[in-house]
Automatic annotation (TrEMBL):
Positions of the FANCL UBC-like domain: 104-192
Sequence ranges assigned to domain Fanconi anemia complex subunit FancL WD-repeat containing in this UniProt record: 7-84
GO molecular function: ubiquitin protein ligase activity
Name of the featured protein: FANCL UBC-like domain-containing protein
GO biological process: interstrand cross-link repair; protein monoubiquitination
CDD domains: DRWD-N_FANCL
Length: 213
């Protein structure tokens, strides 16, 4: 009963079920109030507990759960919630995030080196957006803008912009890696040569009359 009173006093926005096996409401995490639901089937023990929260915070919460060390004296929901809001937990998340970012950068840079600098137009500082290019047989440049998810390569790159007909998006979206997407992009550019030639011919033989109306 003492632990329940402590939790209710420190976390008044977290409401328990009558058997204390489900806690729903909100807590402060990273100085923000977030909605959360905590299942504690063996309350007051944390054995088998699980947390549901918004998708954008799921990774941070999971990292805190993984780094939290349970001992006999501190095996309880109240202590875990205090840890979740502690400086120690935030530092652990920062270390995990830094390690993840380093691995992500290494993977991206390795692929860009394999593609060759002649195919790289621009990279954002955090490497989350890449502008790549290829030159077709007519000597015309075509650009591709790729977005890189934070959990790459577990998740596929996104196609943010493309200098091609939209019908090409279906094939490009199947690429698992930056290299895959770029190779498909090059193949599609070459396969659209008849289209480019027809487009250039049409553009050179037509003009706008009274474009303001």
């Amino acid at each position: 009963m003492e632990q329940i009173s402590k939790i209710l006093n420190h976390f008044p926005l977290l409401i328990p079920s009558t058997d204390f096996k489900l806690w729903s409401g909100s807590i402060f995490f990273k100085d923000e109030e977030i909605p959360i639901s905590i299942s504690t089937p063996y309350f007051p023990s944390l054995n088998g507990f699980s947390i549901m929260c918004s998708a954008d915070l799921e990774n941070d919460i999971q990292q805190s759960c993984s780094s939290y060390k349970v001992d006999r004296e501190n095996d309880g929901l109240g202590h875990f919630l205090e840890y979740l809001q502690s400086k120690e937990a935030l530092e652990e998340q920062t270390r995990s995030s830094t390690k993840l970012d380093y691995c992500l950068y290494q993977q991206i840079l390795k692929e860009l080196q394999e593609l060759g600098s002649e195919h790289v137009v621009k990279c954002q500082g955090d490497l989350r957006s890449l502008v790549l290019r290829t030159i077709d047989v007519r000597g015309v440049e075509h650009q591709l803008v790729i977005g890189i998810p934070r959990d790459y390569p577990s998740s596929r790159p996104t196609i943010d912009d493309i200098d091609m007909p939209e019908v090409a998006l279906q094939d490009l979206s199947k690429g698992e890696t930056i290299t895959d997407v770029f190779n498909v992009f090059q193949t599609l550019v070459n396969s659209f040569q008849d289209f480019w030639e027809a487009y250039d011919s049409l553009k050179s033989c037509t003009w706008l009359i009274d474009p303001e109306h």
